[in-house]
Every structure is written in C-alpha cells, then in structure tokens.
Write a structure and sequence with these properties.
The chain contains 3 helices and no strands. With about 90 residues, the protein is mainly α.
C-alpha cells in the first residue's frame, strides 16, 4: 500500500445518519419513478429480469370514523400503547 495514502475523515454517527437518509430518499424517488414508468408503459421485460403487476385490494380501519361513531370510551380497551424513540436531526 502507498505510504502517501489519503485518510478519509470518519463521519460522526449523526452526520452519517443525515447522509444515509439523503441517499435513501434519493433511491426511493428513483424507485418510484421507475415503478411509475413500468406501470405506464407496460414494459415488463428487461434484459435480466421480468416484472409482474399484481393487483390486490386491502381493507383498513377508518380510525376517525370509529372514534366518531363509537367514541373513545368504547374504543379505549382496544388501544395499545407503544413507546417509540425517534432520532431527528437539524443542521448546525
């Protein structure tokens, strides 16, 4: 190995987290753009892979409508509390 090798600065975990989140955001945007292009054009066959469009329905509870119809007193026994720790960042 060369004695003149450049050492890269080690990022602080907070700074690396911000960088990783930006990369994830960019990748998700690219994923969504590609997904939309595939759906719009119907181009499902690539050189090495094939895509399948799978249609499905799903049901989910309308929490606001339930609260309005039954009231929180009726729903309280079915509410589960969990603790979440979020890491928010802000540029200095």
């Amino acid at each position: 190995m060369d004695d003149q090798a450049v050492s890269l600065p080690v990022l602080h975990p907070v700074d690396e987290l911000v960088k990783v989140r930006a990369e994830i955001r960019a990748l998700k945007e690219r994923e969504n753009a590609l997904r939309e292009k595939i759906i719009e054009t119907g181009g499902l066959i690539g050189r090495n892979h094939i895509a399948f469009l799978i249609h499905s329905d799903r049901e989910q509870w309308d929490h606001e409508a339930l609260k309005e119809e039954l009231g929180m007193a009726q729903l309280r026994p079915f509410v589960r509390k969990t603790t979440v720790i979020r890491v928010r960042t802000k540029e200095l």
